[in-house]
Amino acid sequence: MPSIRYGRHTPASSTIDESLVTRQRDSRGGGEEALLFLKLFVELKAGAARPYRRRRQVDYPTSSSVNLSYNSDRRWEVVLVAAGLLSFPHPVNEVSARLVAGGVVIMCAVAISLDQRWLIAVIAYGFVARVLTGPTLSPLGQLVTRVITPLLGVAAKPVPGPPKRFAQGIGAVLSVTAAVLAFWFHLPVAAYAVLGVITVAATLEAVFALCLGCAIFAGLMRVGVIPEAVCRECNDIRNRTQAAARGA
Q1: Is 158 helix (H, G, I), strand (E, B) or coil?
Q2: What's this model's pTM, rounded to 2 decimal places?
Q3: Quick check: 181 and 123 in contact, CB under 8 A?
Q4: Beta-strand (E) ranges in the chain?
């Protein structure tokens, strides 16, 4: 009976001689088990002869890296929101600016005449909010820009924004000083005196459209304290306003 021999160096691609398998099956009277066993043996030998292939390592994101990416995105969102929030309109509608000044006059007059010290804190917050965010976080600014000005139906008069912001900054310094005098040093008379200065300046703007802070801003530009870029922007607004007036 012929036997099937496989050497140690049998190549992986070697195949089974079907005639030999048939003769072996017929001589032993076996069934399909011998054929299946031989095929399995050859396949195992072929698999052992194949070179080992290193599996490619895939770097899956870990929970820490995902959290860091998420936190980074959230930080950028906060920065963008803060950048948009801490802004001042440019140009500014002078109609709304004069109405806000009128509201400041009313609050100062009530605080002084009726001795309502709590209004000093409200006035100080309003100035600080407007110098940082314009009308966004100022209740008085929101009331004027969203309700009163649209109801009046007066044509908008654009004026440069930086001088108005500078004027609000002066008001913030004065009103915070009044709040410190009233609540920290308990000097209501001195606090009301500072409020009187704010009342005069706000009255000039509300009634006569004379912005003392804007005049100081212009003087600082002339002496070179304010950068020329800001000066060019202000001139830009004035030129556009004059052109629009001539066109009308």
Answers
A1: strand
A2: 0.66
A3: no
A4: 92-93, 158-159
110-123 per-position pLDDT tens digit: 999 999 999 999 99
Euclidean distance between CA atoms 126 and 64, whole angstroms: 43
- Say which residues have a Cβ less than 8 Å from residue 76's Cβ, sequence separation at least 6: none
Measured between alpha carbons, how far is 96 from 221 in angstroms, rounded to an integer?
Answer: 25
* Residue 43 CA: distances (Å) to CA of 3, 36, 38, 140: 19, 11, 9, 86
Helix/strand/coil for 196? helix
Angstrom distance (rounded) from CA 157 to CA 96: 9
- Helices 118-133 and 94-113 cross at an angle (nearest 10°) of 160
DSSP string, 72-134: HHHHHHHHHHHHHHS---SSEEHHHHHHHHHHHHHHHHHHHHTT-THHHHHHHHHHHHHHHHT
For residue 206, give both structure tokens: 């509300």
CA distance 141 to 175: 17
Please state, in angstroms and rounded to a whole number, the distance separating the CA atoms of residues 127 and 18.
99
Residue type for position 122:
V
For the chain, the residue count is 248
Q: What's the half-sphere exposure (Cβ side, CA atoms, 13 Å) at 91?
A: 17
**What pLDDT, on a 0 to 100 scale, did the predictor assign at position 73?**
64
- pLDDT tens for 126-156 read 999 999 999 999 999 999 999 999 999 999 9
Q: Are 178 and 191 in contact (CB under 8 A)?
A: yes
Residues 182, 123: Cα–Cα separation, whole Å: 13
Residue 233: partners with Cβ closer than 8 Å, 6 or more residues away: 90, 160, 162
